[in-house]
Amino acid sequence: MSAAALAAAVSVTVLPASEAPAPEGPATAAAPGTGARPGWALKSTGTDARFRGLAAVSRTTAWLAGSKGTVLRTADGGRTWRDVSPPGAAAEALEFRDVEAFDGRRAVVLAIGEGEASRVLRTEDGGATWTESFRNTDARAFYDCLTFFDPRHGLAMSDPVDGKFRILSTADGGRSWRVLPDTGMPAALPGEAGFAASGQCLVSAGPKDVWLATGGGAQARVLHSRDRGLNWEVASTTIPAGEGAKGVFALAFRDRGQGLAVGGDYRKDQASPLASAVTGDGGRSWRASAVPPAAYRSGVAWLPYTRAAALAVGPTGTDITHDAGRTWQPLDAGSFDTVDCSRSGACWAAGEKGRAARLE
What we know:
Layout: H1 3-9, E1 25-26, E2 40-42, E3 51-56, E4 62-66, E5 71-74, E6 82-83, E7 95-101, E8 107-114, E9 119-123, E10 131-135, E11 142-148, E12 154-161, E13 164-170, E14 178-179, E15 202-205, E16 209-213, E17 221-225, E18 233-236, E19 246-253, E20 259-265, E21 276-279, E22 287-288, E23 299-302, E24 310-314, E25 317-321, E26 329-332, E27 338-341, E28 347-350, E29 356-359
Antiparallel strand pairs: 1-2, 2-29, 3-4, 4-5, 5-6, 7-8, 8-9, 8-11, 9-10, 11-12, 12-13, 13-14, 15-16, 16-17, 17-18, 19-20, 20-21, 21-22, 23-24, 24-25, 25-26, 27-28, 28-29
């Protein structure tokens, strides 16, 4: 997205020294007499960085990537966080917006921005050392998100270059990258781009399927590839668009067919009706949620071991669905930008002012 729109979308609030990140503890309590219900347990990170990149590995292990060149990792369920930021990243004020982790030692992070600000770095030793495997040299490109199909194959996406979204591919776990040909990519709409808001504008399911979310154009669209980014189909969603601040901000697919889209208008003074949509055919068609979240949402994730439960998060709170996105109910009022659930069933969220939490 444009530099002006990015600045508005991703402004960082710095805490005064007297306002430390919230201490660990439950963010949502169970209602009296109703039994246990899910809620966020906050985990103090000791920083005021804004975390829009999140990788949930397990109940004990998670990675955070955010502003000020910050990357953190926990191996004890969030009781302590190790600062594993790449050397020099803070001095360059790199904006890390996505992290994909294969386990507690191997991870790939994406720094976003115009020109050389867009970079990919990789670690194999839990963040003790990092290797830069890609640095964008095209001033027209602006990378937003990345995703992996498996520990070897992954993609990253850039806002349109020469009228088409640009796709970067790796087949060796992020050690090297190449730009894919754009012959199978549909033309972008005027003003259309991705939102680097939660690391979820590019998501995958299975060995070859990948989806790309857009906004800023006349329509909020989702592009789908069945062959790891070589050829794409495009469909319009019901989420409002037409301005640079509106569109689909995050996607989640439970499998090749069942998917969720959330977004809206990230401007605080603007309402976000129809901020979620669902698909049952792999993104060929989208239906508006009958009861969407009440406000803009930037992140979404399916709850493991369920057929129809998912979480959506944003600056004004968390919502939960128990019917595959058809209706959403408020769960928590705390601010989060992104949410992720591990295959083992652990869900984490992260956001502004160093906020991180695990679902309990």
